[in-house]
Amino acid sequence: MKFLFRNKSFSFELLRAAGYANYAGADLGEVLATVRSIPNGNEGAWLRSWSATADRVAGIADASVRRGHAVSAREAYLRASNYYRVAEFFRRRDPENDSTASHLSRRSAETFFAGASLLEAPFETVEIPYEGTTLPGHLFLVDGSGKPRPTVIYSSGFDSTLEEAYFVVGDAALRRGYNVLAFDGPGQGAALRSQGLVFRPDWETVLTPVIDFALTRPEVDPGSVTLFGYSLGGYLVARAAAFDHRPAALILDDGVFDFHGAFANAIPSFLRSWIYSGQDRRADYLLKTMMALDGSARWGFNNGVWSFGSASVSEFVRQTREYTLDGVIGSITTPALVLDADKDEFLLGQPQRVHAALRSPSQLVTLSDSEGAGEHCHVGSMARLHQVIFDWLDETVKPRSTDNRIHAANLSD
């Protein structure tokens, strides 16, 4: 689904950004006004235009706060947070020394906190104990009653951030009576930028402490915890569920059996053989040529080297081979909803592999391009995605609850 740009990455990221309008994360008019001055594929113009919009909208929020307009301030801060994230997205050439990227990332977090602090439902920032340090998290509660409720634990993916969690699942969950605990794990968001923690394939070592933390909270029903994995998170939470059987349900958006396939499929076989045999200097020369010609490849490999802590592009590609469910998926006992996008340009066919290999009760749902939901993670069609996810969750995790049901009697009233 091309959205205003011929460039695949620009089109996808624009659709992703605009799709959060359902949950106060964007305003379509602001989005269209922002991109009309961006030439196709021009990353410098993308940065300037999105940064300007983010600054302007943050200024609106600040003014609303000063004048006592809490709802207007909240909505503007949330939009600004998303726009700052979008502005920073393509800055991956040297992210550790990129002051512009650091500033935009920080502003995304600051404006999100300002907006979330004005939510009608309780919101907390939390620190989750992890291997001698902590992981940053956000806890969104349905209300302040302290009543134990079903809770979604959200793991983001290869490039998503803690702040984005609210738009991906947080607001939709709260509307339906689910708490949400979101966090940045190694390789993600603030855990990567501020602590230098890089991705690891054994995500059970990450998620088990997160579940432990969640179960210390009286608001979390220990028998109704759901793991939600977004993009690469679809692999991460499935891997964790193979070792930790406490969760009641598993949402894979989308299913990822072998993350290596997303990169291997884009690399010629002769070049893969150089990479696998350790001929990094030779392989990197051609990989960097690919990156110079293809913005998607440039972003993906640069982000991978950074977030995986790789010494070279070739090493990063080799490291992705460890991110497979082969040999462990049979140990998953948790009921799973496996989502599939029929036009996924990154992981096409992987959800089917996951569904076929699962021994636990699982349902595969393919959302299609014909209904506007065929892109990776169903960006741009969040209402349809959440309808599928939470209808399934209501029937799987809360089978005795009528909180979110419409009774037949009501339909005839």
Descriptive overview:
- The protein has 17 helices and eight strands.
- It has an eight-stranded mixed sheet with strand order 1-2-4-3-5-6-7-8, sandwiched between helices.
- The protein is an alpha/beta fold and about 425 residues long.
- It has helices spanning about 10-20, 30-35, 45-65, 70-90, 100-115, 165-175, 190-195, 205-215, 235-240, 260-265, 270-275, 280-295, 295-310, 315-320, 350-355, 380-395, 410, and strands at about 125-130, 135-140, 150-155, 180-185, 220-230, 250-255, 335-340, 360-365.
List the helices and strands and how they pair.
Layout: H1 8-19, H2 28-35, H3 43-66, H4 70-88, H5 99-116, E1 123-130, E2 133-140, E3 149-155, H6 165-175, E4 179-183, H7 189-193, H8 204-214, E5 220-230, H9 233-241, E6 249-253, H10 261-264, H11 269-276, H12 280-293, H13 295-308, H14 313-319, E7 336-341, H15 350-357, E8 362-367, H16 382-396, H17 408-411
Parallel strand pairs: 3-4, 3-5, 5-6, 6-7, 7-8
Antiparallel strand pairs: 1-2, 2-4
Helix pairs in contact: 3-4, 4-5, 6-16, 8-9, 11-12, 12-13, 13-14
Q: What's the CATH H-level homologous superfamily of the largest domain?
A: Alpha/Beta hydrolase fold, catalytic domain
Query: Alpha-carbon distance between the termini?
Result: 41 Å
Mean pLDDT: 93
Number of strands: 8
Quote the beta fraction: 5-15%
Instruction: Tell me the number of helical segments per DSSP (H or I, 4 or more residues long).
Output: 17
How many domain regions?
3
> What ranges have pLDDT less than 50 throughout 5 or more consecutive residues?
400-413
Identify the overall geometry: globular
Order of helices and strands: HHHHHEEEHEHHEHEHHHHHEHEHH
Radius of gyration: 21 Å
Largest sheet, if any? 8 strands, mixed
Q: Which CATH-level-2 architecture of the largest domain?
A: 3-Layer(aba) Sandwich
CATH topology category name of the largest domain: Rossmann fold
Strand order of the largest sheet: 1-2-4-3-5-6-7-8
Coarse structural class: alpha/beta
**Percent helix among the residues?**
40-55%
CATH class of the largest domain: Alpha Beta
